[in-house]
Design brief:
heterodimer, A: mainly alpha, 2 domains, two-stranded antiparallel ribbon, 69% helix, globular, B: mainly alpha, Four Helix Bundle (Hemerythrin (Met), subunit A), 7 helices
Amino acid sequence: MDSNNNITSIWDFFQNPIIMNLLIGVVYFAAIAAFITVLVIILMWMDRRVAAFFQERLGPIKYGPQGLLQPVFDAVKMVSKGNITPRNVDKLVYNLAPMLIFMTTLLVYAALPYGKNLTVVNLNVGVLYLIAISSTATIAILMGGWGSNNKYSLIGGMRTVAMIISYEIPFAFSLLGIIMLTGSMNMTDIINAQKNVWFVFLQPLAFVVFMITAMAELNKSPFDLPEAESELVAGFITEYAGMKFGLVYLAEYANMFSMAAIAVTLFFGGWQGPLLPSWLWFLIKTLLMVFFIMWIRWTLPRIRIDKMMKLNWKVLIPLSILNIFLTGIGIKLYQYFTGMGGV
Amino acid sequence: MDFNAIVSAVMSNIVFYLLAFIIIVFALMMVTSKNLVHSALFMIVTFLGVAGIYVMLQADFLAVVQIMVYIGAISILLVFGVMLSRRDNMDRSNLNNSFGVAAFFVAAFLFVIITRLMVATEWIGLVSTRPVESTAGQIADLLLGPNMVAFEAAGLLLLVAMVGAIILGKGVDQSK
């Protein structure tokens, strides 16, 4: 009997490309989930220590070396808390929102290049995919804000929509310059194009706009208006307790890492670097970037709600459009002087 | 027939009918839901299903744009839904009206047109047998090449609409 044409063994079944892809997908998912869990524990510790450092205190140092076990204690406390659902919430929307917030975070991790040939899915439209996924997070946050049936939560959710929808425009525009330079939206192509010079040197204006808008997309101070604790209690997460709050909290730190990873990939040459293996370079650069984000976060005070919109529409969007123009002119000049391509 | 080919065909059929089922069920739920916000959320699932169909057709660029434009826009819709319908009880915010007959005729008209188009199209020639390398590049070539004028006109129209909306929103300064 020809083993290629008939089901002779269970092994044949698993060798089918579609079944194989499904299984590999499950493995990838487990790997990413484990990666995020470990990562968030480290980031939580790092955030508290960095915050303490900038505020001239010590931060958590009691449990484990340098207080590294503190997040584990926090996590155990979080899980053991009661799962409270307030009476007048919209049950389905309220309970779905934290899961969806975390899901959008997970989806971003699928497209990140962790090292040489180390990407879960190498999408042709990688950059666009990241922008699209980060825009869907808005809905999850608004669902949480609306489903909680609480005025503060709703205002927090509304602010998120107003903020993320408007900051998305300069966010996407700042990445256009890079796409123009590489001629591709594939993350791997973008990293390969930075072999000689990082895009942060070719696109300094885009990098500044990108970092400001990235802070806004992260809902982090100075753009933490959706959860401004002095005005809105805790914004859209006011009514969440226990593990539901934990998921939102987890997603926030995971988002911080993925945003830093996007910045490293697009502006700092991704996993490229001498001597050390590529995944280590990726981790080093990204953690440095995370430190930079925490630095900004713990240094600058919150921006006022009216100034936030002004900054976006009157400063960031014109700057990002200017960057596209300058990049276009730059490309044409380069082609003219090096004699590449017709002008 | 090769075993692998059978599994592939079965799987793509399963995925297609699953997506189709999701699209239709959630579209119906969107129309019948009495809660405005729930309606908008059901619409998101419908759009996600359509994006899934695009992925099955290997139109990755279109799928991502579907998610970015349509699903991103729904959050705006939700905000307006919440802001414009100030009711104590959201369960009665998406009420029925008495245009059932007119709606039936419009729906029937659209159904006839779409069915007519589906029957008239030569599907066999349209299907590309080899996988497409980069859909974004091809779309860009088409939009900025032969269809340049239509593309620019659409952009201009959108700009005019946006300026009009801003003027309507702000109101004209009467003192000048």
